[in-house]
Amino acid sequence: MDNKKFSWSPDGSELPEIEPHTKAKHRILEEYLERYLVTLCGNNRGKRKTITIIDGFCGGGMYLDPDDNNALWAGSPIRIIKTVDKALDIVRREKAKPDYQLDTKFIFIDNNKRHINCLKSQLEQSGLGHYLKDSEKCKIIFGEFEDYVDECINEVRQRKGSSFFFLDPKGWSDVSMDSIRRIISLQKSEIVYTYMVEKVIRFLNKKDEVKAYKNVLEVEGYYALLNFYLSGSPAKHRYIKDETLRLFRERGKAPFVYSFALFANKTQPKYYLIHLASNPPAQREIKYALWEHNTIDLVYQFEYGIYGLGFRTPDYYEQNPSVINITKENEAKCINNLNDDLMPIIYNHPDGISLDEIHTSTMQKNPATLDHYIQCINEQVDEQELEVFRDGKITTAKKLKPGDFIIRKKYKQLHFMNKTFRNM
Ligand SMILES: C[S@@+](CC[C@H](N)C(=O)[O-])C[C@H]1O[C@@H](n2cnc3c(N)ncnc32)[C@H](O)[C@@H]1O
Fold it and tell me: Where does the record place the region Disordered (predicted)?
């Protein structure tokens, strides 16, 4: 069953059907890559950037969409190439950098020869055949990702610049923690990884029999309390998510880790799309893309932080129409919770804390985007609780900058202290 879902014939006469959660994954990938490249190049003082993009489990390049009369739906390699072109066009036109150059190299890997051949034919048919003829721009490799990860890392080192790895396997043992560590240690590198959490959990009871748990995933010491939780309980889902993030932060040595839950059924995430990054701007940008595709009700699950942001298939919403319009409520809940988290930190910094510092030090703990942080602080400025200093002077600007200092308002402090003394 699973095999048929991801089976491409070499000539493209057989294409797999796309599923709703895979569509959501593709949209997140595209949107994130576009945002990230536009920010990376738009903020760059120079006129060119180098980036190496590796799609380590690339598949055959095209699907059929049963929800759209079996129309063609492009897979990750074609989407990645087209998104890079689109992002460069935006940088040139909207960022006033008409001669900006992006030196991009794509590496596509798959261990199924039929899929590789299908990808080549789909690239031709999508008008991207020229990539097949230019090995400086595009390499297509038939083989196991783990056998070629060194080659990819060396290529990134040689080319210098940034790197982006999209790792989208079907199983949990195709990418080793060691590879994740080495990719992240490249610096200016990041990974979007499909972590098949449902499978990891299902077989965890057999972890002593399955060597890969220890050797590949390095999972020893993680998920240890799993069996103490009631099956299917919110607390269990939360535990799984938190342990997953801890695993990648500690074993993967990734300074910035964030997850997005993808559900194929109603009850538990099939996989997490995990974003691992060596720097904060990458995580800042992916959160915007994740909000765009979130269909999970934060209001219901925020206290528990069960799944964080995520995507459930549309049939769930057909049965539960009340939760379709959730973005507004989610934002209100998100800012409320953010307020509870941020105010104690600001109060603990009597000389103030920069927007950049407070955002970077807390961004992995909540779903809020940078815009939500700014909105939350502005609301407290309006409430006369906080003030913002820019270049040593109070500012009333609403568009806050990373270097702005957020300080608890002195008048409020005095007022509060006077009240306390009077009541003593
Ligand atoms: C989920 S599909 C990829 C879909 C593709 N990323 C997309 O979004 O269009 C997984 C692919 O990985 C390939 N694959 C499985 N194990 C692999 C391995 N160890 N190394 C490289 N490719 C592998 C399969 O042949 C299959 O084409």
Answer: 1-20
Average pLDDT over residues 352-376: 95
Least confident of 9-18, 69-78, 211-220, 243-252: 211-220
Q: 199: left (phi > 0), else alpha (psi -120 to 50), else beta?
A: alpha
229 CA distance to ligand 1 centroid (A)? Answer: 33
Which H or E run contains 92?
helix 76-94
Compute the distance from residue 106 Cα to the ligand 1 centre, in Å.
16
The SS3 assignment for 62 reads: strand
Residue 112 Cα, ligand 1 centroid: separation in angstroms? 8
For ligand 1, atom 26, the nearest C-alpha belongs to 59
The reply to whether ligand 1 has any atom less than 6 angstroms from the CB of 142 is no
Q: How far apart are CA 222 and CA 211, in angstroms?
A: 15
Give me the chain's average pLDDT, please.
90
Instruction: Report the pLDDT value the prediction gives residue 422, as an integer from 0 to 100.
Output: 53
Q: Is the CB of 58 under 6 A from ligand 1?
A: yes
Which sign does the torsion angle of CA 313, 318, 321, 325 carry?
positive
Encode pLDDT of 41-50 as tens digits: 988 888 999 9
The domain spans of the chain are 2-324, 328-423
Contact assessment for residue 373 and residue 342, using Cβ atoms and an 8 Å cutoff: yes
The finding on whether 63 has its CB within 6 A of some atom of ligand 1 is no
Please work out whether the CB of residue 250 comes within 6 Å of at least one atom of ligand 1: no
Length of the chain: 424
List own/partner pairs for 43-47 with CB under 8 A and 24 or more apart.
47/97, 47/99, 47/100, 47/101
CATH class of 2-324: alpha beta
Fold agreement (2-324, 328-423): no
Contact 227, 206 (CB under 8 A): no
Q: Which CATH class is domain 328-423?
A: mainly alpha
157-161, 272-276, 409-413 — which is least confidently predicted? 409-413
